């Protein structure tokens, strides 16, 4: 396996490399075409260094995201600085803050409006599991109940360094993606399939109602 | 006697001999029986606590006349807080906090109805503008319908929500699964009118008609400062009407508090208005301390005051940055965040957190100040004074900004009082509402500072009030930083904190207005009802008045200068 390179952190210093390697092994289970893989690498290189996030913040974590965008932490070093206000132009949605049951359909719609390939990063305890509001009657216990999550960044709110680390983990994930031929991760993902089925069910329900 | 299992081992051990002497009985119940008598009594204050309030009960039928008398004759023109309560057998009711802005006199009233199936109370929304939104909140949480209210809709929860979550006998999770369908938004709302013979007539009130051109702004919009949803009716580019839809970040904090112990409730206050984390937590700690009659040392008072003021500067800098970015000045945004990081560094050294600080505790603060604290703060004061001038150079004098803010979104003093818009918004219109002056707390009676007020009441005045308040806050910190008295940073408290039965209200001056804590205790280790007077809710309620006949583009300026934080509104 060719290890994806991130400039600031050597491969072995990343946490949880086992999960990552498992993912790569799954992707390349059927082997890869040399030429196609080279083309893939070029595309992935471009993509991973220009992930445009959607400006989406519901609470505290959003303020830390603004701090990450500002001069001291400077998210522009990684090519994430182009925050988009429209989901149609964004590549990644950073779910920063609590998602309540009233907000859940809105978040789902935002996710559906984004163009493929799209990624989700769950920022902070609230979006991972409900966090301090887990026992509340009006809080979704983790956004992974409604949309598939690529990277989880724990913290309440996470420090800017954690934001950057989480985004680098996402970059690594993007760097091993297959675009041409072989496997297309998004379609082979069993979870994704179930999400589509869920969608259909929802639409049917809506039509009935 | 519900605290048997929660007793700490130490407390249990102390009571062991007595329990053993109590022949034949099991140890645990005896220990619980002995403990309140031995420990709680000597510390209980003889006279009512400083912040205890005793609301006068008024029959629902006489309420409206009495409220009208108070407003007109006794000039109680500021409805500070309106809290819904569920007293179970004594019924569902409301507590009103009133204040006269002229004399500073305060009055507390309550009313209740025992009808749980169809509770009806008279509305006071015709007397105070803010009562409109407060009563909708009570309806949403308790299902109390207000007769004479023009707009009885839910405000935080979805319109298809079943039940009223704050009632003690309601189980909100049972009938409310996660609904992924788009939420319904009604254009027609219900009004109830109470007739002279006691019957109720149902009426209809149309919010938006067929001829209205309605634009939705939010909940996902970069300039609404969070997930706020405005339904705006337009006439060309002019705003005709705004209907705010709230609740996209309603986390039910107040309901959660009812099942948490007092120290646990503190953790959630920081997450209300995260730009006033210190002040929110200060308010709750202060309310509990005063209710218990717990003395905190002078050192703690001064540390809390300095931290509150640092937080205020932090908040006002962020206000500046976000306003600039909303209006298109990205450079100014970066300037603001550069200076904000300095404050966050100071916080981080002492509290360990950047945004959510968890610093105040009941009876003191979590940890003593860091050895570098004074040095860092003293470096920061001249630095900030110099940089504030930079803000004025780059942004305040800008012609585009001046044209977009002067005379835009005017709220007069009367409107501010009627809507209860405290903080910088009220002060920009000439209303002296600073809690630090009105009801001094912590070390604010020991320092000299000016209450910044202006008279214009427009967006520019609101902006300038905040900028000048940064200077005042620096002055306060400068007076205190070298005079932090010695003493313990944490008063001794019992392992289980219980507040004596009663109703209490304490307020602090938050970053954007009066942040109040309404606490009703039955003497347990958890509050019976804990209500926060949100600083932002009156500001959002006033949006419709402030924006009428303005251009749609000015909505951003007005919203930006009013300075609301949405998680604080929704709670």
Please describe what this structure looks like.
The complex is a heterodimer of chains A (209) and B (571). Chain A is an alpha/beta fold and 209 residues long. Chain A has helices at residues 17-27, 34-48, 60-69, 104-113, 124-129, 160-175, 185-188, 190-208, and strands spanning 53-54, 92-96, 119-123, 151-153. In chain A, α4 (104-113) links the parallel β2 (92-96) and β3. The longest helix of chain A is centred in the last third of the chain and has 19 residues, at 190-208. Chain B is of the alpha+beta class. Chain B folds into 2 domains: 49-172, Beta Polymerase, domain 2 (2-Layer Sandwich), CATH 3.30.460; 256-570, Cytochrome-c3 Hydrogenase, chain B. Helix content of chain B is 41%, strand content 17%. Chain B is built from 20 helices and 17 strands. In chain B, β3 (78-86) and β4 form a beta hairpin. In chain B, α10 (330-351) packs antiparallel against α11. The longest helix of chain B is centred in the middle third of the chain and has 29 residues, at 298-326. The two termini of chain B are 31 Å apart. Residues 1-45 of chain B have low confidence and may be disordered. The interface between A and B is large, with 45 and 49 residues.
In short:
The complex is a heterodimer of chains A (209) and B (571). Chain A has 209 residues and is an alpha/beta fold.
Key phrases:
heterodimer; A: 209 residues; alpha/beta; Rossmann fold; four-stranded parallel β-sheet; 4 strands; B: 571 residues; alpha+beta; Beta Polymerase, domain 2; Cytochrome-c3 Hydrogenase, chain B; 2 domains; four-stranded antiparallel β-sheet; four-stranded mixed β-sheet; 41% helix; disordered N terminus
| Oligomerization status of the protein chains | heterodimer
- CATH overall fold name of chain A: Rossmann fold
How widely separated are the two ends of chain A? 51 Å
Domain count of chain A, please report it. 1
Q: Kindly report the spatial arrangement of strands forming the biggest sheet of chain B.
A: 1-15-16-17
Q: Strands of the largest sheet of chain A, in order across it? A: 1-2-3-4
CATH architecture of the largest domain in chain B: Orthogonal Bundle
Topology, number of strands of chain B: 17
Q: State the share of residues found in helices of chain B, binned by percent.
A: 40-55%
CATH topology of the largest domain in chain B: Cytochrome-c3 Hydrogenase, chain B
Radius of gyration of chain A (CA) equals 17 Å
User: What's the main sheet of chain A like?
Assistant: 4 strands, parallel
Largest interface: A-B, 45 and 49 residues
